[in-house]
Amino acid sequence: MTNRAFRPAAPLIALVVGILLMLPLFVESTYALHMMILIFISVITGSSWNILGGYTGQYSVGHAAYFGVGAYTTMMLLQFRQVPPWYGVWAGAAAALVIALIIGSICFRLRGPYFVLASIAVAEIVRVSALNLKNITNGAEGILVTEIPPWTVGGATITDWQSKVPFYYVGLVFALVVILVSRLVRSSKLGYYFQAIREDQDAAHSLGINLTLYKNAALSISAIFTSLAGSLYAVYVGFIDPSTVLGLDLSVQILMIGIIGGVGTILGPVVGALVLVPLSEALRSNVIAQGLINSGLVREDSAVGAFLKENLAHAHVLIYGILVVIVILFMPDGVLGFVRRIAVKKAKA
Amino acid sequence: MEIFLQSLISGILIGGVYALIGIGLTIIFGVMRVINFAHGELLMLGMYATYYLFSLFHVDPFLSIFITMPLMFLFGAFLQKIVINRTLASPPQNQILLTIGLGLIMSNSVMLAFTSDYKILSTKYSSSSVRIMGISISLPLVISFAITAVITVALYWFLLKTDTGQAIRATAQDREAARLMGINVSRMSIIAFGLGSALAATAGALISPTYYIFPQVGSAFTLKAFVITVLGGMGSVVGATLGGVLIGVAESVGGVYFGSGWKEVVVFVLFLLVLLFKPSGLLGKSTT
């Protein structure tokens, strides 16, 4: 296939990682760092989803459950038990693993559309439970963390979490680890089992692959990393409530990052995050309307200009929806697949 | 006992409306194998149409279904012909994302046009009730149940007795075989999606006198539609009818005994139990 031509060479990877590591030294804009952190969180969730959905073919539309369980565990420990987040994160991952195994043992008995619907149902159970167990989760009010204790190792303070830089590095490390794990899983025996299950469950089963075991393995890896993203998000933003970290909207967003870039590829979720995060931020912050006016395409005092300035920011989800529909209709293999096809056409020409 | 009876009866009544939502989804799934994630949004459009017909032209919400139903049939048929039809051969994740995208477009267009304020459609009889054997029941619920029953019977007649209905069922049973028998499969898909949209919108019209109307109201009903459809067996119209009533009762009785906050959990647990012990649904066939 065309795969080989697009596999980035080692020096290129080293260069990108190097630039990302140095970035906070040169970039002072907190907004740029904020965007990068959001992109990292999306890369982590999208890649985690991809291990289960892309490699193993189990389209979960309930990944908010693991994101939210991680976020809630970390935040509850931090706020109510004063456990610092760098311990809480691992407790969150453990909690997500337990939930994943429970959910997996229920849902993996189902296939295809039934699995999709069951994954939504269990995530909804988790959300409604968090909403109703008011004495431990604070219910719909959510949890607001005002103070994060500084991170000290042997008396030396590593960071006091006052700026965005420590969050940037945590996000970067998590994202790199997820991508690395994706790469390792894909080319390992485990990954081949996953892909065999995706291609044909019955055939895989008849060859002696334990379906339940390997589906649960994929889900466990996926859930642990999703929960890390959830914990990072929670501590970074400082506030969570059931609808933002456990809602169906979040599950859908995670799914989109996994699919839009190109499903079942290592770089797909990265591309997905790089496309969707800046896009939704740009739509939300009205830069597009301003850009159209500044570039002279639309006169500010004209009716169209006024209308755009007034409404475009409110319409960001609408435009997002339109783009999703366009991508699905015209790039059925995702952005990455589309770019590849064009490149192949050019190479032939 | 009286409380139990009361919640049982209102559960059955609202369950009739849920059945309409479920039947629409199950027909779409049966004919095209597409899970329509925008189903609740179609219902929401029906609610808004009803609201504006009432507030601008004083059309009674229950009479407005004569306008809403054909309108939404055309809208659904249009969506199928122009958009969804292109992805029928694509992998399932593309269809899921596509219908999610369509749902986002619908709910956010409505939000832009009519703001996200909650709207209440209050008629003269909105809060009136009838007493049957000492149990008082909301009048709009009784009327909407009666209308649902009529529509459901008409639908069964359509599917069982008419040529088009039989062609739709044949397509649902085996798309390839139906095509070989000379059935215009893509036309059946268009009719099926139109029918599904019309049913969802009708359900929306029927509940609009008793529910808050806002752009995001759809997603809760999408979830409910999924539960109902799977409960009954995906693709089974009788199953969806039964599933709708069952969910209505579970919600209503569960709400009384576990508190209204937990009623959704009751529904979802019921859903999972059915999935686990009879994954093909109550009336579904064992083949996938």
- What are the low-pLDDT stretches of chain B, counting only 5+ consecutive residues below 50? none
Could you tell me the mean pLDDT of chain B?
A: 86
The total of beta strands of chain B comes to 2
Query: What is the tally of beta strands of chain A?
Result: 4
The end-to-end distance of chain B, rounded to whole angstroms, is: 42 Å
Molecular structure report:
The complex is a heterodimer of chains A (349) and B (288). Chain A has 17 helices and 4 strands. With 349 residues, chain A is mainly α. Chain A has a domain at 30-148 and 160-264. Residues 1-5 of chain A have low confidence and may be disordered. Chain B has a two-stranded antiparallel ribbon. Chain B has one domain (2-277): ABC transporter involved in vitamin B12 uptake, BtuC, CATH 1.10.3470. Chain B is globular, with a radius of gyration of 18 Å. In chain B, strand 1 and strand 2 (135-138) form a beta hairpin. By secondary structure, chain B is mainly α. Helices cover 72% and strands 3% of the residues of chain B. In chain B, helix 2 packs antiparallel against helix 3 (65-82) and helix 2 (39-57) crosses helix 8 (185-207). Chain B contains 11 helices and 2 strands. The chains are: A mainly alpha (349), B mainly alpha (288). Chains A and B meet through helix 5, helix 12 and helix 16 of A and helix 4, helix 9 and helix 11 of B.
List keywords for this structure.
heterodimer; A: 349 residues; mainly alpha; two-stranded antiparallel ribbon; two-stranded antiparallel sheet; 4 strands; disordered N terminus; B: 288 residues; ABC transporter involved in vitamin B12 uptake, BtuC; 72% helix; globular
Topology at a glance:
The complex is a heterodimer of chains A (349) and B (288).
Chain A: H1 10-26, H2 30-55, H3 64-81, H4 85-107, H5 112-132, H6 134-137, E1 143-144, E2 151-153, E3 156-159, H7 165-186, H8 189-199, H9 201-206, H10 211-237, E4 239-240, H11 242-246, H12 248-260, H13 268-284, H14 287-294, H15 303-311, H16 316-330, H17 334-348
Antiparallel strand pairs in A: 1-4, 2-3
Helix pairs in contact in A: 2-7, 2-10, 2-12, 2-13, 3-4, 3-5, 3-10, 4-10, 7-10, 8-10, 12-13, 13-16
Chain B: H1 2-32, H2 39-57, H3 65-82, H4 92-114, E1 129-132, E2 135-138, H5 139-161, H6 163-173, H7 175-180, H8 185-207, H9 218-232, H10 237-258, H11 263-277
Antiparallel strand pairs in B: 1-2
